[in-house]
């Protein structure tokens, strides 16, 4: 017969594995989009001199910082520091929102440069940029919802030194979104 500890351990492993499957699936979708981008570079209407907006560089720094603060929240709860956990989770939320704002500011910079998603001023290059970043933003909105649930559960005192599963799962997904954006940014910047 299985003890409660063994059951909880198996349940945690199952939840982490399901999250890994979901994240790998999401990454494969973005791998397909970036592969289509690479194939499309041979088109005659491709923009070879397009530069990423400055706001995307800022948003990259912001999302990396948010990943660090989420990690600090996880470390704080494992030490039993509830105040520190609260602080770092709220800072992570603010940074996540700042990332979204910077992304929209980046879209405005692209539009100010004369490139649009559709219409006569659009190009295949900028359409790919809009699609990939918008799909990432959709996943980030899911990440913000996850973060809000983690914050809510934290304030309901569902996490402590011995029970951190929800916070760990939230952190895994948030770090995945961070790594995914860094991959996309570097891809667009260097390719």
Order of secondary-structure elements:
HHHHH
- β-strand percent reads under 5%
Helix content: over 70%
Kindly report how far apart the N and C termini lie: 56 Å
Q: Please give the CATH architecture.
A: Up-down Bundle
Molecular shape: elongated
Protein architecture, described:
The protein is an all-alpha fold and 191 residues long. The mean pLDDT is 92. It is elongated and about 65 Å long. It has 5 helices and no strands. 79% of the residues lie in helices and 0% in strands. It has a single domain, classed as Four Helix Bundle (Hemerythrin (Met), subunit A), CATH 1.20.120. Helix 2 packs antiparallel against helix 5 and helix 3 runs antiparallel to helix 4 (124-155). It has helices spanning 4-40, 54-78, 82-112, 124-155, 165-190.
Set out the fold topology:
Blueprint: H1 4-40, H2 54-78, H3 82-112, H4 124-155, H5 165-190
Helix pairs in contact: 1-4, 1-5, 2-3, 2-5, 3-4, 4-5
Summary keywords:
191 residues, mainly alpha, Four Helix Bundle (Hemerythrin (Met), subunit A), 5 helices, 79% helix, 0% strand
Q: In a nutshell, what does this entry contain?
A:
The chain is 79% helix and 0% strand. The protein is mainly α. It is elongated.
